[in-house]
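step: validate -> pass
step: tokenize input -> pass
step: predict -> running
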Amino acid sequence: MPPDERSPGPLPYEGVWRFTAPAVDASVPQARHAVRDLLVRQGVPVSDDLIQGLLLIVSELVTNAVRHAALLSPMLAVEVAVGAEWVRVSVEDNHPYRPTALEADHGQTGGRGLLLVTEITKEAGGVCDVEHTASGGKVIWSALPLKPARAI
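step: predict -> pass
step: emit ->
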């Protein structure tokens, strides 16, 4: 087949990477650094704004797993999936309850993590959700476009 008729193969930065970590506070910065290093090492074309948003999402999701699921899920999994036009980060734990993004009292210092994840995701033109796993736990994910959303 002539070169111009071949279907394009995956881009060099496309793929799925997964790592596990204990559900402890030290895993939050470790997960953030691991995701940043992976994106850089793979040459994923992410803007500074996008990488900052992704790292904040990872921090919030891992923090939630550590704070709310550690008793039932001593280990958590972080996954980064990169396609030609998007990047998806997810955190999986074995706790069965689906979290909700609640409006937090302005006097509280916590409780805004999922609301923040939702807002960062929307602002970037992405989507996020929570799904149950076959093992009875859950995975919370956020997928963001590699290129900024166009203003309408």
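step: describe -> The chain has one domain: 22-102+110-145.
step: cleanup -> pass
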